[in-house]
Design brief:
Elements lengths: L18 H14 L5 H10 L6 H10 L30 E2 L6 E10 L4 E9 L5 E7 L4 H15 L6 E4 L3 H4 L1 H9 L3 E4 L9 H13 L9 H17 L12 H11 L8 E2 L2
Parallel strand pairs: 2-5, 5-6
Antiparallel strand pairs: 1-7, 2-3, 3-4
């Protein structure tokens, strides 16, 4: 038919990596993000222009011992036996459509040499971005307030935004509630003993523990104050891929949203 053979055969310009090179790329990703599973590794490779099947990545990670099992330990951080007012859950079945509509908060412990220090965090529910945090040797209202004030200064939230937390005394105390009301927050609290009501904040704490805290031997409060802000701001907010965000980091997800949507007043609706 007088047609060139290239009409029928296409040779990719970029040859796929051999397994040795691919393994090196996988190990580099795991070194930077030790808590990544094979699916996030696959997404990161795709972002780098390396197209490879996730099953092959899983096989290589198993062979190289790159699949980690997190350590499990539990210390109670919520004291809901107090005299303060308990607010209803406002975020159950709520459809969040943009940033600064709902913030969620939580507190966790971090082990150092002979005691614990505590971390309070506030996340934007839409983007999962950590917008405020504080570290202290004391688990008290001052800790949660420091995280809240940081978030307010950084984000300047509009009136009507929802602040969601557990029923812990740190969030129900008058000093904390007064600041929320002063800045026009609606107050929401999870039902007692229901882990699903604040699942996003608890998921963040799990990520923090498995991908940062358990990989370091903190000895002092200063060690925690040095490492955790770096992980939260530089790794979690700017680099870590989130499956719930289409495998984008929170900062990138927010920036992409703001490029395509004009700022508008808060409009929260019950999800169908």
């Amino acid at each position: 038919m007088n047609l060139p053979r290239s009409t029928y055969y296409y040779k990719p310009k970029k040859q796929p990596l051999d397994e040795t090179e691919l393994t090196s790329h996988i190990e580099a990703i795991i070194e930077e993000f030790p808590g990544y599973g094979y699916r996030r590794v696959a997404k990161e490779l795709h972002r780098q222009g390396i197209l490879v099947n996730h099953k092959k990545i899983l096989r290589i990670m198993r062979q190289r011992g790159l699949i980690r099992k997190p350590r499990r330990r539990w210390i109670r951080t919520t004291n809901s036996n107090h005299r303060y007012r308990i607010y209803p859950n406002l975020v159950q079945n709520l459809a969040v459509t943009g940033p600064n509509q709902v913030w969620v908060s939580d507190i966790t412990y971090i082990s150092i040499q002979s005691t614990f220090v505590y971390l309070a965090v506030i996340l934007d529910l839409f983007s999962r971005k950590a917008v405020g945090y504080a570290i202290s040797p004391n688990i008290d209202t001052a800790l949660s307030l420091a995280a809240l004030i940081m978030a307010i200064v950084n984000r300047k939230p509009p009136n009507g935004i929802i602040h969601h937390s557990d029923q812990g005394v740190q969030y129900a105390a008058h000093d904390y509630v007064d600041i929320l009301l002063e800045h026009g927050f609606q107050i929401s609290m999870a039902r007692k003993g229901n882990p699903y009501d604040n699942a996003t904040a608890e998921s963040f704490m799990k990520t923090l523990k498995t991908e940062e805290v358990y990989l370091w031997e903190y000895r002092t409060l200063a060690d925690v104050q040095l490492r955790l802000p770096y992980f939260i701001e530089q790794v979690y907010n700017h680099k870590r891929l989130h499956s719930s965000l289409g495998y984008l980091p929170p900062v990138e997800f927010e920036e992409l949203f703001l490029k395509t949507h004009k700022p508008c007043p808060i409009a929260l609706t019950q999800a169908v």
